[in-house]
Design goal:
101 residues; alpha+beta; HU Protein, Chain A; 3-stranded antiparallel β-sheet; two-stranded antiparallel ribbon; 3 helices; 5 strands; 32% strand; extended; structural constituent of chromatin; DNA binding; DNA-binding; IHF-like_DNA-bd_dom_sf
Length: 101
């Protein structure tokens, strides 16, 4: 099951006894700030959570799945990578792969 931003707002509002509209404003501002920093080419590090980095993906050749003989040039571009922190990695490793969709 996927958690949405709305689900996150409801959960945080319940745990903090804040209004959902206040929580939504804080979460949206946080996400906007993260996006702005990444768009400016800067990394973001949250201790015990993980690191968001902007990386350069080199130019490469791809193939059209409908016409595998046709090669398509994929230009160099910037991409966002996420490296989970130690705590997150440890908790995710405890998951049973058979329980995942």
């Amino acid at each position: 099951m996927t958690m949405t931003k709305r689900d996150l707002v409801v959960r945080v509002a319940r745990q903090t006894n804040l209004k959902q509209s206040e929580v939504m404003d804080v979460i949206q501002l946080t996400l906007d700030t993260i996006t702005e920093e990444l768009a400016a080419g800067r990394s973001i590090e949250f201790r015990n959570f993980g690191v968001f980095e902007v990386m350069r993906r080199k130019e490469r050749v791809g193939r059209n799945p409908n016409e595998p003989k046709t090669e398509v040039k994929i230009p160099e571009r910037a991409v966002v990578k996420f490296k989970p922190g130690k705590e997150m990695r440890k908790l995710v490793l405890k998951l049973d792969p058979q329980d995942l969709q």
